[in-house]
Write a structure and sequence with these properties.
The structure holds two protein chains of two kinds. Chain A is an alpha/beta fold. Chain A has 17 helices and 23 strands. Helix content of chain B is 71%, strand content 3%. The chains are: A alpha/beta, B mainly alpha.
C-alpha cells in the first residue's frame, strides 16, 4: 500500500434484492484529508459508509486501512481500528447523563478510569464544551451532536465519518463544527463527510467523490467547483433551480392566535402564545434549531393534539377542536418530519399508504368501504409525478431510501391540491435535483392560491422559497418578516434564542 | 459462531410455512414425550392427530369444537392486529352464555322462531358488556387491558357458578347446580343429522367471510393495521386511538359472547358451571397459528379442535391424563412463536475475523 493513504477501498459491491447499492466502488482517503461523499438519494452513500463502519458487509471488494487489509465484522471492530462515526440520527438515551451515554457507545477497553475528566478535556480542546453530568434530555440538538462527536474523539480516531452533521445546527454552530473538523484534520485525522449541502462541501472539503446509481462517476476538488457543477455531476444532467417568487397575497387562510399548549412529553417543548397568519399564495418559512417546538406546533396545527377552539382558524372557521380528518376535509394537508412511523406506515405498501391521508380527498372511502383501485391509481400517479424510485406501488414504505420515501409523502400531500399545506423538513435527506422539484411544486401550489407553512432547519431552503420568514425558539415564534429583510446572522441569533431584542431591532 | 441478524424484508414464505413447521415440531416433540413416559409413541401420535380424521363422528365433533374457537379467534384477531390485547375472551364467553341463557330460561316453554335470535343478541350484548369494563378502564384511566380482561374471566366464571347454584337452578333438578335444559325453540338446530354438529358452525363461517372483507376492504381493518404497526401514523391519519380500542374490544367481546351462547344453547343445552373449558384461551393460540388471517384462523381452528378430540381419545385408549390436550396446545404456541423469530431474523454464521489478528 502507498504510504500516504489511510483508507483505500476498491471494487466494493453490495447487492440488495432488486438493487445494486454499490457497484465496484473505489476511492482512497489520505491522512488528514477531509473527503466529501456526495450523490443523489439512493446513490449508495449510506450503504458505503455502513460497510466502512462494519454495520454491513460487502459482497465483493477490498478495503485497506493504514496499509493492512480491513474487513470489520461489526462496528466495535471498526472502532478498534480507529474508525468513528457520527450518525444523522443520534443514538442517545435521554434519561442518562452525558458521561453514561459516552461510556455506552465505546468499546469496553477504551473507557478510561476518569471518564468525566476526559470528556471535559477533550471537549474543551476541540471547542465543543460539554458537562458530563447533564442529562441528554436537557441538551439541545446541537449539544447532543457534540456528545456523539466527543464519544468518537475519546477513542483517538484516525478516520471520522460524519453523516449530514449540519442539518440540525444553527449557522453559528456550523461554524464551530467546521473549526473542530479543521483542527482534527490538521492533527492528521481524516474525515469522510456526507452532506447534501454542496456549499458547505466547497468550503470544508479537500476532495469529493461523486456517486450515482451505486457507481463512482467522478472525483473533484470541490474548492474549484460550483455547487451547481457538483450537483450536475451527481445527477448527470442539467439542474433547474427554482426562481424566487414575489406573489400577490390573498385572504388569510390559516390564522393562529395566542396558541399555547403544554407538552405531554417531559422532554417536549411547550408552545407559548404563538400567533401568525398565512395568506393565500404565501409561503411562510419557520426556521429554528430542532427541538424548539416545531414538532409540537405541527401536531397542534394538523389536529393530532387539540387546542382551544378559537386559536386555530381555517378560512375563518375555528378548528382547534377538530380532528385531522376534519381538518383535511377543510383543505389542510401536512407532511410530518418523521417519514417512517408517522408520515407513512413502514410495513405497508405505497398504495396502502395513500389511504392514510388521501382517502377523503381522493374518494377512496365510501361509508367505510375502501376503493382499492383508486388508492392504487393514486399511488401510481405519485410515483410517476414525483419520480419515486421504487420497485412498484406494492413495495413496502420501509424498503425505500429516505429521500425517495420523502418524495412519495410530499407527492401524496401536494397532489391532493390542498388549500393549506403544513410541511416539516420538506427536503431533509433529499438530493439537489429532487429538492429543486419539491421546491418548485411548493411554489406552484402557492401560486394556485394555497397557503403554505414550511418548517425547516435548512436556512438556505427557507431563504430560497419563502415569502415571509419567522423563527421558532423554545416554543415562541418571532414576528414574521418579509424574507430578504433579515440577514443570516440575525436569524442565527434568533435561532439561538436571543429573542425579543433581536426581533425588534430587525423590525 | 452464529448470531441472529434482522432480515431486510420479512420472509413471506416462512410466514405462511411457520404453522406447518410448528405442527411438525409439535408431533416430533410429542414422540419424544411419549417415549419418555413409556407409551407407544407412534400409536399415541396417530390417535391424537390422525385417527379423528377418518371417522364421521370425530369430524362432526371437530366442527363442534372448532365453532367457538373460530368465532372467538376472529374477534380477537382485530384487536391483536391493533395492539389491543384482550386476553379475557373466556370471561366474555361465559358472560354471553349467562346473558343468552337467562333469556332462554326466562322464556321457558315459549315457542317462536324469534327466541333463538333474541338469545343470540343477548349473548352478544353480554359479551360486549363484559369487554366494556376493560375498554372503559383502558381508555379512561390507561389501565392495562391484559390484566383487567384476564381477571374478569374468573369473576364471570364465579358469577355463573353463583347463578346456577341459586336463581337459575333447575327447580326439578334435585339440587344439582344446573339450570333447566333449554326447550326446543331455544336450542341451536343440528347441522348433520345424528351428530352434535350444529348450525353455529355456519355463523363461524359467516364471521370468517365478514372478517376477510373488513380486513381487506373496510376502513376499520385498515385502522387496526395502522394502529398496530405505528400508532403515530394512526394519529396522523386521523384515527382516534380510543375509538379503535373500543371497537376492537366490543367486536371481540361480542363474538366471544355469541360463541358462549351457541355453546350453551347447542352441545351443552343448559347452563352448567363446567361450561367454560378454555375455548377463550385456546382461541388466542388459534389467532396466532392462523397468522391473524381469517382463512388461517379457520384452518387453525380445525387443528386445535383436533387436539381436543385427540386428547380425549388418548385419555380413553391410552389412559393418559387430561392434561395431554393442554400440553399439545402449549407446544404448538411455543414452537410457533419460536419459529416466528426466523420470519424477521435469520441465523448467520459469523467467521472469526482475520483482520484483527493481522493488525
Amino acid at each position: 500500500m502507498i504510504e500516504h493513504t489511510l483508507l483505500h477501498i476498491s471494487g466494493i459491491t453490495k447487492r440488495f434484492p432488486g438493487v445494486l447499492a454499490n457497484d465496484r466502488v473505489g476511492f482512497s482517503i489520505a491522512p488528514g484529508e477531509i473527503h466529501a461523499l456526495v450523490g443523489e438519494n439512493g446513490a449508495g452513500k449510506s450503504t458505503l459508509v455502513k460497510i466502512i463502519y462494519g454495520v454491513m458487509h460487502p459482497d465483493a471488494g477490498e478495503m485497506h486501512f493504514g496499509g493492512a487489509p480491513y474487513a470489520p465484522a461489526r462496528p466495535s471492530e471498526a472502532r478498534a481500528h480507529g474508525v468513528g462515526m457520527v450518525f444523522q440520527h443520534f443514538s442517545l438515551f435521554e434519561s442518562l447523563s452525558v458521561a453514561e451515554n459516552v461510556a455506552l457507545g465505546m468499546n469496553k477497553e477504551a473507557v478510561g478510569e476518569n471518564l468525566d475528566q476526559q470528556i471535559i478535556e477533550v471537549s474543551e480542546s476541540y471547542g465543543l464544551p460539554l458537562d458530563p453530568t447533564r442529562l441528554i434530555g436537557s441538551l439541545s440538538v446541537g449539544e447532543r451532536q457534540r456528545v456523539e462527536i466527543v464519544r468518537c474523539l475519546l477513542q483517538n480516531p484516525r478516520l471520522l465519518i460524519m453523516d449530514e452533521p449540519t442539518s440540525v445546527l444553527t449557522p453559528q454552530e456550523v461554524e464551530i463544527l467546521f473549526k473542530t473538523l479543521r483542527q482534527l484534520s490538521s492533527e492528521g485525522c481524516s474525515i469522510l463527510y456526507i452532506s447534501h449541502k454542496l456549499d458547505e462541501i466547497r468550503v470544508l472539503c479537500d476532495r469529493a467523490t461523486v456517486l450515482r446509481g451505486g457507481k463512482v462517476v467522478g472525483e473533484c476538488d470541490p474548492t474549484r467547483e460550483t455547487a451547481r457543477s457538483i450537483a450536475e455531476m451527481m445527477i448527470g444532467g442539467a439542474l433547474e433551480l427554482p426562481e424566487p417568487q414575489k406573489p400577490d397575497l390573498g385572504e388569510e387562510r390559516l390564522t393562529v392566535t395566542g396558541l399555547s399548549k403544554e407538552s405531554d412529553d417531559p422532554f417536549g417543548v411547550n408552545l407559548d402564545k404563538i400567533s401568525f397568519a398565512v395568506r393565500a399564495g404565501e409561503i411562510l418559512g419557520v426556521a429554528g434549531v430542532a427541538g424548539n417546538g416545531q414538532v409540537e406546533l405541527m401536531e397542534v396545527l394538523i389536529g393530532e393534539v387539540l387546542s382551544d377552539n378559537d386559536t386555530i382558524k381555517i378560512d375563518g372557521m375555528a378548528v382547534g377542536h377538530t380532528n385531522p380528518t376534519q381538518r383535511r376535509e377543510r383543505g389542510m394537508c401536512s407532511v410530518p418530519e418523521e417519514r417512517l412511523g408517522h408520515g407513512a406506515v413502514p410495513d405497508m405498501s405505497l398504495w396502502e399508504n395513500t389511504i392514510l391521508s388521501a382517502r377523503s380527498h381522493k374518494g377512496m372511502e365510501n361509508n367505510g368501504i375502501l376503493d382499492l383501485g383508486v388508492a392504487q391509481g393514486f399511488g401510481r400517479e405519485i410515483v410517476d409525478e414525483f419520480d419515486v424510485k421504487a420497485a412498484g406501488i406494492a413495495s413496502v414504505a420501509s424498503s425505500l431510501s429516505g429521500g425517495n420515501l420523502q418524495k412519495f409523502i410530499v407527492g401524496r400531500e401536494i397532489l391532493q391540491t390542498p388549500t393549506i399545506l403544513i410541511i416539516l423538513q420538506p427536503t431533509w435527506g433529499v438530493d439537489a435535483a429532487a429538492a429543486a422539484d419539491i421546491h418548485r411544486s411548493l411554489q406552484d401550489l402557492a401560486k394556485g392560491g394555497a397557503a403554505i407553512l414550511v418548517i425547516s432547519q435548512d436556512l438556505d431552503e427557507l431563504m430560497l422559497i419563502s415569502t415571509n420568514f419567522a423563527v421558532i425558539s423554545e416554543g415562541k415564534l418571532s414576528d414574521p418578516l418579509p424574507t430578504g429583510s433579515i440577514s443570516i446572522e440575525e436569524i442565527g441569533l434568533l435561532m439561538g434564542g436571543v429573542h425579543s431584542s433581536a426581533g425588534k431591532e430587525v423590525a | 459462531m452464529y448470531r441472529l441478524e434482522p432480515r431486510k424484508e420479512i420472509s413471506y414464505l416462512l410466514l405462511y410455512l411457520t404453522p406447518v413447521f410448528a405442527i411438525v415440531l409439535t408431533i416430533l416433540a410429542g414422540l419424544v414425550l411419549f417415549t419418555l413416559i413409556g407409551k407407544p409413541p407412534l400409536q399415541a401420535i396417530s390417535i391424537i392427530f390422525f385417527e379423528p380424521l377418518g371417522d364421521l363422528y370425530a369430524v362432526s365433533e371437530m366442527l363442534v369444537k372448532a365453532t367457538p374457537l373460530i368465532l372467538i379467534a376472529i374477534g380477537l384477531s382485530f384487536g391483536f392486529r391493533a395492539g389491543v390485547w384482550n386476553i379475557g375472551a373466556e370471561g366474555q364467553f361465559v358472560a354471553g352464555a349467562i346473558a343468552g341463557g337467562s333469556v332462554a330460561l326466562g322464556l321457558y316453554e315459549v315457542e317462536g322462531f324469534w327466541v333463538l335470535p333474541l338469545m343470540c343478541l343477548a349473548g352478544i350484548l353480554g359479551g360486549m358488556a363484559w369487554a366494556a369494563i376493560p375498554a372503559f378502564l383502558r381508555t379512561r384511566f390507561n389501565a392495562n387491558e391484559i390484566l383487567v380482561s384476564l381477571m374478569l374471566t374468573y369473576v364471570a366464571i364465579l358469577i355463573l357458578s353463583l347463578l346456577v347454584h341459586g336463581p337459575l337452578m333447575d327447580p326439578d333438578g334435585m339440587n344439582f347446580p344446573e339450570s333447566r335444559i333449554f326447550h326446543d325453540a331455544a336450542v341451536v338446530p343440528i347441522l348433520i343429522e345424528g351428530t352434535r354438529a350444529h348450525v353455529g358452525f355456519l355463523a363461524a363461517l359467516v364471521a370468517v367471510a365478514a372478517a376477510w372483507f373488513v380486513l381487506s376492504r373496510h376502513i376499520f381493518g385498515f385502522q387496526t393495521k395502522v394502529m398496530g404497526s405505528s400508532p403515530r401514523a394512526a394519529r396522523f391519519g386521523g384515527f382516534i386511538e380510543n375509538k379503535i380500542i373500543w371497537k376492537c374490544l366490543m367486536l371481540s367481546g361480542g363474538l366471544a359472547g355469541l360463541a358462549g351462547l351457541i355453546e350453551t344453547a347447542g352441545p351443552v343445552g343448559q347452563l352448567v358451571p363446567s361450561l367454560p373449558v378454555g375455548y377463550g384461551f385456546t382461541a388466542i393460540i388459534v389467532v396466532f397459528l392462523g397468522r391473524l388471517n381469517p382463512v388461517g384462523i379457520l384452518l387453525a381452528g380445525f387443528v386445535m379442535a383436533l387436539t381436543y378430540i385427540g386428547g380425549e381419545t388418548a385419555q380413553i385408549e391410552l389412559n393418559l391424563p387430561k392434561a395431554v390436550t393442554g400440553v399439545f396446545q402449549g407446544m404448538f404456541l411455543f414452537f410457533l412463536l419460536g419459529i416466528d423469530v426466523f420470519t424477521k431474523y435469520r441465523l448467520r454464521h459469523i467467521k472469526p475475523s482475520k483482520t484483527v489478528a493481522g493488525e
